[in-house]
Amino acid sequence: MRPTLLSLLSLGEYVKLSLSAWPSPVVPLGQTVTLQCHSRSPLKRFILFKTDGRRGLPQFQGYYFNNFTLGPVTREHAGSYTCSGAYWSAHSDPLQIVVTGVFTKPSISAHPGPLVQVAENVTLRCHSPVVCDKFILHQESSTGHFQRRGEMLTSGHAPADFVIGPMTLASAGTYRCYSSLSSSPYEWSAPSDPVDIVITGRSKKPSLSAQGGPVVRSGENVTLVCSSERAFDQFHLLMEGEDLGRLLAGGRGHRGALQAEFPLGPGIPAHSGIYRCYGSFTRSPYSWSDSSDPLFLSVTGSTTSTCPSTMEPHTTEEAQLPQAHSCTWYIFLGLIIAFTSTSILLAALVCHWFSTQNHVAIMEGEPMEDRTVNGEDSAVEDVIYAHLDLGTLSERRFTPTPLRPVHPSTEPIIYEEFDANRDHAEP
Asked: How far is 26 from 184, CA to CA, in rounded Å?
């Protein structure tokens, strides 16, 4: 028996309608959204109404069967919608359609960090580069479901701080924030970049080691190994809070522990730092194990010449150019050092030689300069030469004359010859 119009109208007074949006009630500018009105009544014809928001669109949206598509959406599509049956006046609960991308996206950051121990708190800070007075925080779970986690009114350029905690598995996930104006509640900014909040400490910690030891020379290949006795699906490597990526668990190590190797490539000074690793399961990507003990990696020195080798065909010309400049600089610096050292050594030898010659000259009583008078050496003191007979030599005391400044003598040298027999004949 087919239902009469009267029975349908009577049924409509007691049947509650519902309105939903697919894929989401938060719609970027230019995209489309489908509204669905659900009812348990046999009548499938409905009316869509826009009850709030900008008045660019008429309040009455028209008749439709189950689905009504909006878009490409503009700011005029933002607002609150309800639906009702075509032959009765009962309305569904309002559904808010939010249009995003109207304002510049804000930024989001986690304090003290995105890795949060069980039962601890984390603060998500949202900040907008433009003036706004409202922030909205959204969470995306591992199943892809979006959930509004909170709204906060601010003033001017002040940021909004959302406290998440005590941390549970349900609190972990991907978070984004939006900014808006309280005068236009259905028009939001573009979403911020995502931040992943991970809960840690739900499994036993793995171990982290470096192949060949934690101290390597520059240029040597660096590989870090994260291993665990428990069979994790994947391992995560972090350097002082910076996520370096994740790897699926590989083979087993020498002790049977499941492990993953993280090759960092040839060691460079930037690789020096503190490393930690974690384990996780694919069914719970936001739940990690306890942190491994920290590994202090140090990259020092150099094993090879910094000059590029022409025997390496895989080295590109762009890579060789800075190396060639570095090599030229080192060669130039080495030549300067060698020249300076040689000059200092020669100067020291010359000074030592002159000092030795002066010392010898003083010890021998010789003049410091060559002095000649008519081609012959000048005497230090006046000397009288006498030819004496040995038989008449009388005893005299010789007193040396002190040294005095040497000047070429201008007086003639007098030679006098004495006759010993004549001296005896005279009275």
From this structure: 15
